[in-house]
Amino acid sequence: MNALMDQKTAARAEAFADRKTAFAGGQGSAAERLAAVLAPCRGQVLAGYMPMRTEIDPLAAMVAHLAAGEGGRVCVPVIEGPGQPLRFREWTPEAAMEPGEFGALVPAAGEWLVPSVLIVPLLAFDWRGYRLGYGGGYYDRTLEALRAAGPVIAVGFGFAAQEVEEVPVEPTDQKLDLIVTECGVIRPGT
Q1: Which domain holds residue 60?
Q2: What Gene3D superfamilies does UniProt report for this protein, alphabetically (predicted)?
């Protein structure tokens, strides 16, 4: 297992550098593409995220989901502790925000929601649908629990430059259903 951990650590270092370079070039129409991919999910609870550092920014797609009406709600992840799945607190553009774990902003108050569609940040991804995250396993635990309870769509969102040939994986890693970049949409397995 140590060899796999070393492999993931090295992959993360390279992925951070690749993402930083891509971020400097701007995200083009990535958020609009993401909003179009999410359009069939109007009316559902969507989990987005508050971008930090060099993460691609999903906020325009989150706002579009709310603006579409049809009762769709948006939430963002809250880390409650190591080894636990994420919880999701309702978010609107007007929500009062405060720093959460690792510096990500989270709503200071609001209802806890259970999403059926998640926009998932990433450091790297491959065409199989695997993602490399920050190493805490939060999204893997969360997706496993949500999928055990019912249908869930996990949409990876990143820059095309974050694609790698093969993400190192372990049995607990959860696949993404779609990956959206500024260059297009990847449907793993097709």
Answers
A1: 2-186
A2: NagB/RpiA/CoA transferase-like
Per residue in 119-139, pLDDT (tens digit) is: 999 999 999 999 998 878 899
Q: What is the pLDDT of residues 64-118, one digit of tens each?
A: 999 987 778 999 999 988 888 999 999 999 999 999 887 789 999 999 999 999 9
At 190, the pLDDT band (50, 70, 90 cuts) reads low
3-state secondary structure the chain: CHHHHHHHHHHHHHHHHHHHHHHHCCCCCHHHHHHHHHHHHCCCEEECCCCCCCCCCCHHHHHHHHHCCCCCEEEEEECCCCCCCCEEEECCCCCCEEECHHHCEEECCCCEECCCEEEECCCEECCCCCEECCCCCHHHHHHHHHHHHCCCEEEEECCHHHECCCCCCCCCCCCCCEEEECCEEECCCC
Q: Which two tokens stand for residue 133?
A: 């995250």
How many domains does the structure of the chain reveal?
1
**What CATH number did the domain enclosing 159 receive?**
3.40.50.10420
